[in-house]
Design a protein that fits this description.
The chain contains four helices and seven strands; from the N terminus they run E-E-H-E-E-E-E-E-H-H-H. By secondary structure, the chain is α+β, with helices and mostly antiparallel strands. The strands form two sheets. Strands 3-4-5-6 form a four-stranded antiparallel sheet. A hairpin with a 2-residue loop joins strand 1 and strand 2. 3% of the residues are buried.
């Protein structure tokens, strides 16, 4: 059963192309290529005992070699999109810092309200808040008075 229909990017030798109206069938173990659909799009098909070619404008666009099972294996590969996944730290402490050191109970409410996934079981003590709540010692009195010009 097919689950999708669309376009697939492929690479033939060093050239990149795309196949249109491709069906996605996850339960088959091999990719199948319909010669009749290719002929409808203006290609010519030539085959010999050992190899096959798809031609357009008298130029070979795609070649294949015959396997031991009698099928032709096309010399191309599917280009899969490259995706770089970054793992984001979603700790309550990080959101506390992003929201300018708001009270952590308030940060939890904001995360819940906007359906942001964050670790609400954070019991980390914030160093920045501890430093901010400290009082500094007094500077003391001046021992020298002002001088007049």
């Amino acid at each position: 059963m097919a689950y999708g229909h669309g376009t697939v990017n492929i690479e033939i030798k060093v050239e990149k192309h795309h196949l249109t109206e491709v069906w996605y069938v996850p339960d088959i173990s091999r990719n199948l290529f319909s010669i009749s659909q290719t002929l409808k799009r203006g290609f010519k098909f030539q085959a010999s005992k050992d190899e096959c070619s798809l031609l357009r404008d008298d130029r070979a666009r795609l070649k294949g070699v015959r396997t031991v099972h009698g099928l032709y294996a096309l010399e191309m590969r599917v280009l899969y999109p490259k995706v770089f996944v970054a793992s984001a730290d979603q700790s309550l402490q990080l959101w506390h810092e992003r929201l300018c050191y708001q009270n952590k109970a308030h940060v939890k409410d904001i995360l819940r309200k906007y359906q942001i996934k964050g670790d609400a079981k954070d019991s980390q003590i914030c160093d920045g808040c501890c430093y901010g709540k400290q009082s500094r010692p007094p500077l003391g009195t001046r021992k020298q008075g002002t001088t007049t010009p």
